[in-house]
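Milestone M4 deliverable, item 7.
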Amino acid sequence: MAWLLDKEITRELPKEWNGIVPTEVFIQESQNIVEKAKNAGITLRIIGGLSIALHCQEHRDFAKKLGRIGTGVVKGQEYSDIDYVSYRDQREKIKELFEKIGYAKRRATLSTAASERQIYYHPKGWFYVDVFFDKLLVANHPIDFKGRLELDYPTITVTDMLLEKVQMWEAFSVKDLKDCLLLLKAHDVKDKGEKESIDASYIAKLLSQDWGFWYTATTNLKKLEKFISEIDKLGPEAEIDPKQIENNDREEISRKIKTLLERIEKEPKSLGWKMRAKIGTKKRWYNPVERPETVGGFGIWEAILKEKG
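Output delivered:
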């Protein structure tokens, strides 16, 4: 892989880590880079599972009950990379920033160029960094961040975090399931934009314009609600001990999902939405960019919600 990088990178982990990069390192480094970007006049925000962890630190115990700890690609390691989003007009500044702090840039390939992203490797090979611009295009339903990165710091909003998860159709994994439950446990669902709440109004308006996104998101939300309601039976399939999840937590998460679904249902749908709805699933409604074998996930709903014979 060396030929793909701007400079040679050798993996050097402290012996006391025993081959595993601690979660605290990911959390600290992700925030440090955002702070350095801010000082350089760059708008950079953390996305993905790490952003959820940062926003849910007060609910770390619940994450442990879900078994969300230590579910990364490396066994026993919670995360494998740091994901960011910035604005396209800051691409060159981003490149200069990472070069300054010693990261090695992966040379653009057809896939990285087409998806508007840059990939960097830690100076000591601890992990890699993925930077997207304007939109999360490597998605079944692209998430547009234009004008939204200023709404929170150092991460994207919790609203966009949930959208980032429920847009997945092909590769919704156990990790994503647990991230959604953690996110919903830690944040209220409200009909207006507040920093520490999920903006049901924004989600409803966004989905009212796109039937495909609406179908994927509402299908996932309904399955999440089914899962948490039947966690005694379904929990073990997702490596969750039902005894660890108290009834009040189950009821709280279920209530929030129902509130969000009701708000989505109430929102008037656009003409384009209605026209596309007539075709339904006869025509593919999502972008086939994620596959279980490429992102480390699997068909979670097929595995968990399968009919018992």
